[in-house]
Amino acid sequence: MSIIKNLYSIETGNFKLDGGAMFGVVPKAIWKKTNPADDLNMIDMAARSLLIETTSSLILIDTGLGDKQDEKFFSHYHKWGEYSIDDSIKKAGFSSGDVTDVFFTHLHFDHCGGAIIRKGNRLIPRFENANFWVNKGHWEWANSPNSREKASFLPDNILPLKESGKLNLIDANEKPLGFDILTVNGHTEKMMLPVLEFKSRTIVFVSDLIPTSGHVRVPFIMGYDTRPLQTLREKESFLEKAAKDKFLLFLQHDVKNEIIDIKKENNKFKLNKTFKLENI
Ligand SMILES: [Zn+2]
Fold this sequence. Notes:
This protein is of the alpha/beta class and 280 residues long. The protein has helices at 19-23, 28-31, 71-75, 85-91, 109-112, 136-143, 155-163, 228-244; strands at 4-11, 15-18, 42-45, 48-54, 58-61, 101-103, 116-119, 122-125, 131-135, 167-170, 180-184, 191-198, 201-205, 248-250, 259-265, 268-275. It has a single domain, classed as 4-Layer Sandwich (Metallo-beta-lactamase, Chain A). Helices cover 21% and strands 30% of the residues. The model has no long low-confidence stretch (mean pLDDT 97). Bound molecules: zinc ion. The site of zinc ion has 5 residues, from loops.
């Protein structure tokens, strides 16, 4: 089995989303303390991917929003900052052709859009040598989307993956890339969270289960979630274990905090410390 040699944080480009939608039933007076909003009520979002260098592969977890959608589309998401997926991969010492595998936690556009680029009038994979890994149940879900989630599952992302000939559909209990996978069903059908063993620590890529450090409190659940009460249960049991076993949580959407750990105080889960990947 391949051993993890190194991990690299890959910033793919920041964006913004409506703060109310990001916090569901939590009042703004509370969430604005951790996630301040601008004049349009939008909060800052990172789209942070993780590159895993093993002894035999180079695996990218998620790919950010990408840049192939039109201006009208991106006008809703207010992209900002200087990051790009290609620059970040280069900074880590690699190129897109070096990536052997792209693992998608789920297929909402802010997690998979960067995997596909526009070349002339064709949509093709950015990573010409990579295999793509998607949960089988999630793939079916994304291919016949409900109307509430439809705006997140773009045919521009899904069809080129299908046509790539490199799409691998996996079951929840499989471990095709060497690491464990935690599957949760509250945010969307069968979202897969990589669980990595590195430097004697367990690092969990928590994706949209806990998008920012402002979402650590159990009821702080996004309005986007398809099954919020299931997220409630999934978050609680995950955080219980994360606090007890001192998991490190790799945050995808938090502009300030790359990695955090969790403590439990007075029966509430809280952020304990924040870390940078290079310092663990
Ligand atoms: Zn999502």
